[in-house]
Input
Amino acid sequence: MGKIQRNVLILLLIATIFIVGCSNSASSDSDSQEIIKIGVIQPFSGPNAQAGEETYKGNELAVENINTNGGLLGKKVKLIKADATNAQEAISEAERLITKEKVDIITGTYVSGVAYPATQIANKYGVLYWETNASAPNITQQGFNNVIRIGQYGVPMATVAVNSIKDVVAPALGKSLTELKVVIVHEQSIYGTSIGEIEEEELKKLGAKVKRIPYDAASADLSSVVNLSKNENPDIWLRTGYVNDGALLFKQARDIGWKPPVIMGQADDNAYLLEALGDKGMEGILSISYPSYDMNEKYAPGIKDYLDSYRNKYGSEPKIPQTLVSYGGTEILFDLIKEAKSTDANKIREAALKMDVKIGGTYPTGYGVKLDPKTLDNTRAFPVLTQWKNGEIKTIYPPEAVGTDAKIELPLRGW
Amino acid sequence: MGQIIISGILLGGIYAIVSYGLTLIFGVIRVINFAHGSLLMVGMFMAYYLSKGMNLNIYLMMLIVVPLMFILGVLIQKYLLSKVINEPDMQLFVTFGLLLLFENVMLAVTKGEFFSLDMNMGTIPIGSLVLDWGRLINLVAAIVLAILLLLFLNHTKIGWAIRAVSQNRYAAGIIGLRVERLYILAFGLGSACIGIAAVLLTPIYTIFPHVGFNFVIVSFAVVILGGLGSIPGALAGGMIIGLLESLSGYLIAPELNQIVWYLLFLLVLFFRPAGLFGIAGSEEGGVK
Output
């Protein structure tokens, strides 16, 4: 091939790329008039791909629901997927959603580490970032007025732990709060520490004796945590951590034959712990959990419809509770768009700040809505208390949420 | 307090057994094997899936996992590391590449989920103290394996050859030893040792693609503390670090349980780079 021919070929290639690129962006401009576009940032690849996909299904079901009922503000809603597994991808995908896809709103995110950088890009362009799932405290501590967290985070999670100790756990043990001794163990990053500190403070206010022990979740041995806890002879062992450290902690407690009267953990209602400890090992362990699928329809209206539409569309039972959380969160967003008659971040924030929904009785998650005016966190995104019974999760608190005849059974009796 | 010392010794057994493969490979081939932790992880997944699939006791999986890991090690040395045998930097990149490969393949296969065997093997009470079977079996295995490796290295012809190659591979070549073959054998053996560790740890830990990371830094510390290439050193180093971690976790704070042995590790690097049990100058040495 001669030099000139080669140069012509390169020019043609460049021109082709340019033309394709232009036509692409033109098409995405033209249809933004009749539809509302919502970008969904999730890890659709990598280690959290399945969880990202499952969380996305919640958005998808909510959108199908609204579109079959006439859409929003007379327009159809369309979701645009963006795959981000780390900070760099979160930044470039958020940029793409806003500048190229021209989305009206961004929502997400299963992984807090993806949400944090993505919210910064959304803030740069003044686009609403509607956080339904990520729970890290730093996401809403950046002073951004376009980032609203409607899902649960550390404060309500710790509050429900303390409330359920006060309302059901202490009575089940037949002890008053001032007689209670609680050992709080938590992994030492911001996730465990922020929750552990609130739990300690609130329990001390109620008069309970509290000792708090942070630990390293990547440690190959947690026997010192177990032995220090055992020395205190607590009534309640309250834990915040991840899966692998949880399994190790429980197994090492079992290995020295120590089971306190109450074990309560944040999100310890997962199948991985069940696999590690078995039905017998997990029996009776309490968990502060995402809204569970056995909740009462009165407390969580629409949960049956949600379950039916999930089964119809995907042909299985929901795999993780986060799907319901993103579904419920998306419904709240649609209500606010109707209220604000706009997808503008400022108008939605104003409508959201005015919103005052009590816990239970409105959304399929049972969440109420009342934003903290400073952080724009939803202070009423309350989880529920569940207990392991014969390898299954049963909601047992708050009483309005209980959809079965399950009752709290304490104290625990050995592994 | 007695319970803490028991925990420390049992933990020491775990740290020792995960370090034999590393010290053997480093001592002979002189390659820092970044893929050490991910090989351990691969072995744990093998043991888990085989035991679940065949519905057989996990410890029987030793018969399958160890030969498979030996073959994997042989393949790595024969087809990858031997191609860059004179380029230490490239060897590092190769083992680092293997780490990325193994972890990401397992991420794709498992979708990042966690797996555990629900094996409650029970405990042995001794007065007011308690030992658990899983860690006790591991400790006994760690001691037995150390003795077997020492016997092999010191009392068999192949063992002598491996030691000769590790001490001076040029001289070993001149006297007619087939250096490349011995390297392949050594990597296979190191990898088989990792396989043994993997089977023993599977009932104790939750398995996920990054599980090796929890052991890799500590096993490097064990190997350097005990003396590079030294099997008894790895056993002693494991015990020292296990005890230090357990005691400082209990007496200082669980969140600071690694501080003390990190400090010791730094001091050893400064003042006795050959390791506590190495002969001064043996950082240039070989396997013992």
In short: The domain at 34-152+295-382 of chain A is CATH 3.40.50.2300 (Rossmann fold). Chain A touches chain B at residues 46-50, 188, 213-216, 218-225, 227-228, 243-244, 247-248, 251, 254-257, 272, 275-278, 280-281, 415 (CB under 8 Å). The first helix of chain A runs from residue 3 to 30. Chain A has two domains: 34-152+295-382, 155-289+384-401.
